[in-house]
């Protein structure tokens, strides 16, 4: 199938800090920094949007994920928090706070609610990797990596992927039942541009935003680039799956301040987690 992107939203309805994104069960898309920094925007499937939530003073969102119960979790990079949002009341609480974090950036979530967070230090070109066990207990998994950014769990929850933006590398780890990582190995390295957010489909292929290049790269579990989906704009920041069948991809594009979308062949892991697949 030919994957071609199109605009879901108008341009510049979000700031250049647009990130996230994540879909709820009803197919609404959420992304950070709608109209101004420190907010969450909600985009309906038809592309109409609204400022849905203003975060507490001092908090700015980056990655967004939902757990199976429907709660939203946000990486709050200015507050060094993982925030939890009750979707019915819009109450925002601190799920985890870790002052040792540089800035929690992107997050991945497992079926049991365990969260993994990337933690880059852009100035130093280094980064960390954290695990947040319910109810909000924070454990450092690895430190002094490159600029950790995109993070994702494989569909069988036996592998964890982390990329390093400045180093243009994607690493894979074995992940055991106790959320311990081992057998770190290089999945793929690129010679140009940068890497940002990434998500798995149900077959374990990674969809990775190539920041600066303006494409989403589909990468096999063996580290082969299978396809590149061209976007409008260059600074794509993150990607998620949604739609009624989980085969609609949504991409946040910072230099266009909006969301673009394309169809894929297989549903996303995040959608499959909703549907018990």
Automatic annotation (TrEMBL):
It comes from the Bacteria. Coiled coil: none annotated. It holds the Pfam family SGL. InterPro entries: 6-blade_b-propeller_TolB-like, SGL, SMP-30/CGR1_Lactonase. Signal peptide: none annotated. Residues 19-254 form the SMP-30/Gluconolactonase/LRE-like region domain. Transmembrane segments: none annotated. This is SMP-30/gluconolactonase/LRE family protein. It comes from Paenibacillus spongiae.
């Amino acid at each position: 199938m030919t994957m071609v992107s199109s605009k879901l939203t108008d341009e510049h309805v979000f700031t250049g800090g647009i990130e996230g994104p994540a879909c709820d069960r009803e197919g609404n898309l959420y992304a950070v920094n709608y109209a101004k920094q420190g907010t969450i925007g909600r985009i309906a499937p038809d592309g109409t949007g609204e400022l849905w939530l203003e975060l507490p003073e001092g908090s700015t969102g980056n990655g967004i994920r939902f757990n199976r119960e429907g709660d939203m979790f946000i990486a709050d990079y200015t507050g060094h928090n993982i925030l939890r949002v009750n979707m019915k009341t819009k109450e925002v609480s601190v799920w985890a706070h870790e002052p040792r974090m540089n800035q929690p950036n992107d997050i991945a979530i497992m079926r049991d609610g365990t969260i993994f967070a990337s933690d880059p230090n852009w100035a130093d070109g280094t980064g960390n990797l954290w695990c947040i066990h319910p109810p909000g207990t924070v454990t450092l998994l690895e430190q002094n990596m490159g600029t950790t950014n995109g993070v994702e769990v494989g569909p069988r929850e036996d592998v964890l992927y982390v990329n390093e933006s400045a180093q243009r590398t994607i690493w894979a780890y074995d992940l055991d039942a106790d959320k311990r990582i081992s057998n770190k190995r290089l999945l793929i390295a690129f010679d140009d541009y940068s890497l940002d957010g990434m998500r798995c489909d149900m077959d374990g292929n990674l969809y990775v935003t190539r920041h600066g290049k303006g494409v989403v790269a589909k990468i096999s579990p063996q580290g082969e680039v299978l396809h590149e989906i061209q976007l409008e704009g260059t600074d794509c920041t993150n990607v998620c799956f949604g739609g009624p069948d989980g085969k609609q991809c949504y991409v946040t594009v910072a230099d266009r301040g909006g969301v673009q979308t394309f169809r894929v062949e297989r549903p996303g892991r995040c959608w499959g987690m909703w549907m018990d697949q």
